[in-house]
Structures are given as C-alpha cells and as structure tokens.
Amino acid sequence: MEQLNDEYSEYGQQRAPPAHYQQARPMVDPEAEGEVDPNLYPQAKESTHKIRGRYDIIEMFCGSVDQELLFVKTFYFFFYSAFGSLFPLMGVYFKQMGMNPGQCGLLIGIRPFVEFLSAPFWGSYADRCKKGKTLLLASLSCWILFTLPLGFIQPPATSCLERRNATDYELKVPQAPRILKRSISDTNWALDMSSEHLSEGVEQYERAKRAVRPLSEAGVSPLDVRYATNYNAKLHGSWVSPLFSSIVYRTEDIQKAFFLLILLVIIGEFFAAPAITLADSAVITILGDDADRYGHQRMFGSLGWGLAMFFVGIALDHSTAFPDHPCGPEKEEKNYTICFATFSVLMGAALLTATQINFKYDYEEPTATEEAPGEVKPSYEDEMQNQLAAQLQLPLLAAPTKPAGSFINV
Asked: Coiled-coil stretches, from where to where (predicted)?
C-alpha cells in the first residue's frame, strides 16, 4: 500500500510511472486535481496527424496503393455509377409509360421500405453462415436480373393521336402494335368508322366538339383524350395519353403493367438489398483500425454517380429513335433503352470487381486437443502432481501415464 500511495503526491496529483510501465496506459485517478501531464500518455498514431484527403490522393497517384483498397474504390465507383445511370430517371420513365403520380411514387418509394426489412435479415444470415462474399455476388446478380426486365414491361398501345393542325387531333388505330396481335373488336371498328367520318346511320356514336390539347401542368399525368375530334365518351372514357407522347393507352392496361412492375420491384429489391450493406461491412473490416478512411473509399461512389448522371443525361437527350414505336415518336419522347443498357454494363463491372473483395471473419479455433489413442486424460490430482514435479524439476515425481482401458484392482 505504501508503494501505491507513493505514486501520488500529497495534493492528489499523479506522478510519472516507473520506466518499465511507460508503454502501458497509466491509470487515472478520478479524484486527482490539476492539469494532466501529456508525457504520461502514448503518442497518437501517425494517421491522426495526416491530412487524410491529400494523403490518399497523393498515395493513389504518386505512391504505392493498397491493392485490396483499390478494388474497394473500383467497386464503389461502378456500383454507384450504375445507380446514377438509371434510378434517378425512373420516375420520368414511368410517367412516359402512362403511370399517374401515385403509381410512379409507389414504384419508386417501395424500394427503401423493402430494403429496410430485408437488409438486416440477409446481414445476420451472412454473419451466421460466414457467406458474405457469396451473398454479395448473388445480390449484385439480382440487381441485373430484376432491373433489366423493367425496360420491357409496357402496356399495349390502344390508339394514336394524330395531329392534323394546331387545334385538330384525331384518334387513329396504331399501325404496329407493341405487344400482341389483336383481333378486330367493336371498339376498333367504331374507331375506324369515326376516323373515316362515317357517322351517318350510326346513332350511338356522336362526334365531340373540337378542342385544343390542354397545356401540361405539374402533377397532371396522364391526360384524357377528350380533346380529340372523334372522341366518344362511351368508348374512349378510359383512354389516356402520357405527356409529350402520341400513344394512347387504356387505363386497365396501365394498371396491369403497374401490378407486374411493382411485383418485380418488390421481389428484386428483397434479394438485391443486402449488396451495399455487405460491401460496407467488408470494407470496414478490411480497414480495421483505419476505419476513419472509409469516407475516402466511399467518395469514389459519389464520383461515379455524378459522372454517370452527366454522360447518360447527355446521351438520353439525343436518344429519340424508336425502332418499334407504334405511333411515331414525338420530339419530347426519349428512348430509355440506353439507360437500362448502361446500368447492366456498369453493374456487371461492379459484380466482377466484387469477386476481389475479401470478407474476414473471426473464427474460433478449438482449444481442446485430441487425446492420443493409447492414453486417457489425466485426473485433477495427476495434473497437480505433474505441475509440482515441473516446478521442483523432479521428473520421477510426475504421475505415470495410464494406457486406455486400464483399471486398478482394489
């Protein structure tokens, strides 16, 4: 106790520890007063004094770079580039398909909710089964398999809006149906009759008054076709046309496409959600004590997102060619096939890069050693006797080894 009391002064201030304790962190007396002596604590690690952003860039371009972290940076770049090339534009793509604002919002907003439910499940499963890399590659594959079909699911074109002059629009049968070949129906027959202005002798069909196409307003999409010269409320009441498009869809067909799309989004997001969570977990494990460098790995994802949005946006502005457009494209219509193709290529590159990311787990090594086939485990008394013989350096005092199956006659 006297030695412990000598380590503190009479005023409660802590003295310097002995020389052989300099490497250990000293104990701090919570009741001590006065200023803390910085000489009692070890120096901060070297990474604390570095300007991390400048050091990381200089090391990347001028010095040696950790190859493992180079794959991490490349993965983030391709993964977020794939996102930036498609998903910010999905809302406009769904509106061009004839979806209303509620349907567009649900198709986009359901993804974070599904990810919130599925990511913890897959994360715990990966930690429990030690299959993080396998799940990462599988989830990246699901991003491609469940996102690419979104570009092929579209409602069939029911009619086309043909502009005759500044105020005259007429409904016409599309020349090249997109999805399926349909047999002639009463609706199409009535449309042909009205397009040829054969209203005489057909009392149930009445021509609507000529009207100018309504101006586009925020939140109003799609538009009804009542401004067409041959519009009939009984036949064309459920027909709508997206903004800046000449295609006319039936509301029932749009709803069918919507339910198919949302089903595909939910299933795909459930299996693809853990991708970025597993990648972040692997990166933090790789960094170890340098976890503060995570931001410098992740910033390459932001760089990829910005570059992809910039170049894909320029390409989308010039993608006005539609090889299978049933009505002829308008000037404002865009072909989003280039976005889906770019997403698939960039996500495929992220998948290839993810094969080089290693997942590290703390496996518990078995402590119990296998017993020799001809020996049995010594008892507690024999172990104590062996320890005493080792301390006294008297091998003859050690307990004899008993062969397996032996017994003592009493």
From this structure: none
Q: What is the pLDDT of residue 108?
A: 93
CATH number of the structural domain spanning residue 328: 1.20.1250.20
- 345 inside domain: yes
DSSP string, 168-220: -EEEE--SS-SS------HHHHHHHHHHTT--TT-TT--PPPP-PPPPP-TT-
Structure tokens at 123: 């994360």
6 pLDDT above the threshold of 60: no
Tokens of 304: 């990829």
Give CA separation, 1 vs 4, 8, 252, 362, 387, in Å. Answer: 5, 12, 88, 41, 32
> Which residue range(s) make up the domain with 82?
68-154+253-356
How many CB atoms are closer than 10 A to CB 357? 20
Residue 58 forms part of a structural domain = no
Please check whether residue 171 is in contact with residue 191, taking contact to mean a CB–CB distance below 8 angstroms. Answer: yes
Tell whether 220 is covered by a domain.
no
Query: Could you tell me if residue 301 is inside a domain?
Result: yes
123 closest CA partner among 136, 138, 113, 112? 136
